[in-house]
Amino acid sequence: MSDFNQEVDMSEMFKVPEQLRAKAHVKSMEEYRAMYKASIEDPETFWGDMAREFHWETPFTKVGPTFNFDRAKGPVHMSWFDGGKTNLAYNCLDRNIEKGLGDRMAIHYECNDMDDQHASFTYTQVLELVCKFANALKAEGVTKGDRVSIYLPMTVELPAAMLACARIGAVHSVVFGGFSADALAGRIVDAQSKVVITADGVMRATKPVQLKSITDKACELAELQGFKVERVVCVGRLKGTPYADQVKHDWVEGRDVWCNDFIGSQPATCGVEWVASEDPLFMLYTSGSTGRPKGVLHTTAGYMLGTFATMKYVFDYQMEDTFFCTADCGWITGHSYITYGPMLNGATQVLFEGVPTHPEVDRFWKICAKYKVTTFYTAPTAIRALMKSGEEPVTRNDLSSLRLLGSVGEPINPEAWKWYHRVVGGGRCAIADTYWQTETGSHLLAPLVGAVDCKPGSACFPFFGVEVAILDDKGVELEGECSGSLVLRRPPPSMMRSLYGDHQRFEEAYFSQFNGYYFTGDGCKRDKDGYYWLTGRMDDVINVSGHRIGTAEVESALVAFPNVAEAAVVGFPHDIKGEGIYCYVTLNEGEEYDDALKPKLKQQVREMIGAFATPDEIHWAPGLPKTRSGKIMRRVLRKIALPDYLTQDLGDTSTLADPSVVDVLKANHPRAA
Ligand code: ATP
Ligand code: MG
């Protein structure tokens, strides 16, 4: 295609590290291809055999997938493992303990402060905590199918509360602890959760987060919307610590209970509620990058297989590994690669409460050195932020235990990929760029690190059971080297089943664009070697004089410039070209901005992509508007790029982490002069 040669170097190849291949579950491309083929052509055997590693109280009668993606043929639906009954918490905990892993470390809890009381929990200890929680919820009257909202910091109570819900068949709805009272109230009301589990507060770096007082406010707001929260369970995270007086909250008699009192007298064993394969496990809202957040609904058995299999094969999980995923359990990454995927594999992992920059910018690396982490999983936004402070904070720590680095959340620029590989990975680690969504529950595209040579910036190939296609604007499947909309032809096991309480919106949001396909919303290229490259959201593709340019490509070119730490690119209406290219640019720590940079940056993009992609406008951005999960909110940037930016309505910005960056951008505006 015409827009295909404007490329960051797509031929650059990083070979599988041989020491990794030697032990890997999948050791060659041939092996990967054979397994992939089996997963698609004979799911009955491939997924059926894998599923039988788990405990089924009632065996499934059919593997699946049973599904309809074509609205013309009736409602969209999908199911896996029909007829089966199982339980996620049982398979994460009891099953591993029966296998002899009871004394194995499950979770190393690392607190915000370096000198706080970090603690480690074995599988047996996690099970006991989960059972106490589960018994307490049952005593509260919570039964199968009831929703429980969880608004907790990253302490061990968070995954434990999730697993407790799973154990009794309740549906958890975790709300990230950075959300406002408004956002929390909306999610409580939407889920109709009578029970909310929160904490008095938590320190993030040196700032207290008032979780309980925000919960109090959210309960009031919910009540105004006609919904009454009956029980608020409060974990005393700061109670009795030197920070206790930093948090202020009310106490509603009859409604509020301290977690210790709630679970304290409960027995440490609890029977299991066996649930059907398609019974709901949890609901979780998307991050809101593109609009009003969607309450994604996941079910039991398929999600179990998807998270288990990707943890095992993409992260090439081995018994001696120590896994560290830096995501919060408030996001899908924390659900799938903290609470469920690692525990299903019997893994040892680090659960980190704090932030990467506290007390200093090397906290992640200190943690890796402390626990001898082998597998580290983070987001490009974190990598770029840490790149700003240079190499020394990384290299002053002993990172020799690392063997595998993961990335998720956004396209990773080749520049950041290579820094991650060279500086963090010491040039010897594999990198798994994992592309997936809240909706898909587990990885869609990712290299199997023992088998696949990587190209920096490419998420490589589809995972087992994932059948992708790239469509043109008319919905026709493209072959070979191509670029278009990324869709799924069939549901992988861990696919979402609906939007909670709104199946209509579910069909419209994902199945109305292309008949018979699930539309990811993302643009994608396939190169001549069959590697997949995410080019950004489809609505982020800019059409300049008939050339379709992915915003991710222009951003990568800008970030490759020495002074640039981060860039965000959007389109704006242009009289002659149709759309013009508008670039927001953040400089490295300590760099002064100067207008003389503008022509240099434009030249950089011309050289790396082509003259037709030359930026029209460069806007210096000391900070970018990001969602609380760290993604750039381009829809806000598109509005600020307009000539009448001062009078634009910026839409739903409730998931913005720091609203004040918007004012700074307006004050810096190149159109203001
Ligand atoms: P919303 O759907 O509410 O706009 P969101 O899409 O940001 O929010 P998530 O489900 O957390 O919510 O993010 C999934 C999206 O993140 C993907 O659709 C894709 O755009 C992007 N993404 C995730 N991982 C990668 C990756 N490795 N490479 C490229 N893009 C990625
Ligand atoms: Mg999305």
Automatic annotation (TrEMBL):
One of its GO terms (biological process) is acetyl-CoA biosynthetic process from acetate. Keywords: ATP-binding, Ligase, Nucleotide-binding. Residues 102-498 form the AMP-dependent synthetase/ligase domain. Gene3D superfamilies: 3.30.300.30, N-terminal domain of ligase-like. Residues 553-631 form the AMP-binding enzyme C-terminal domain. It catalyses: acetate + ATP + CoA = acetyl-CoA + AMP + diphosphate. Its EC number is 6.2.1.1. GO terms for molecular function: acetate-CoA ligase activity; AMP binding; ATP binding. Residues 32-92 form the Acetyl-coenzyme A synthetase N-terminal domain. It comes from the Eukaryota. Belongs to the ATP-dependent AMP-binding enzyme family. PANTHER family: ACETYL-COENZYME A SYNTHETASE (PTHR24095), ACETYL-COENZYME A SYNTHETASE 1 (PTHR24095:SF14). NCBIfam families: Ac_CoA_lig_AcsA, PRK00174.1. This is Acetyl-coenzyme A synthetase. It comes from Polarella glacialis (Dinoflagellate).
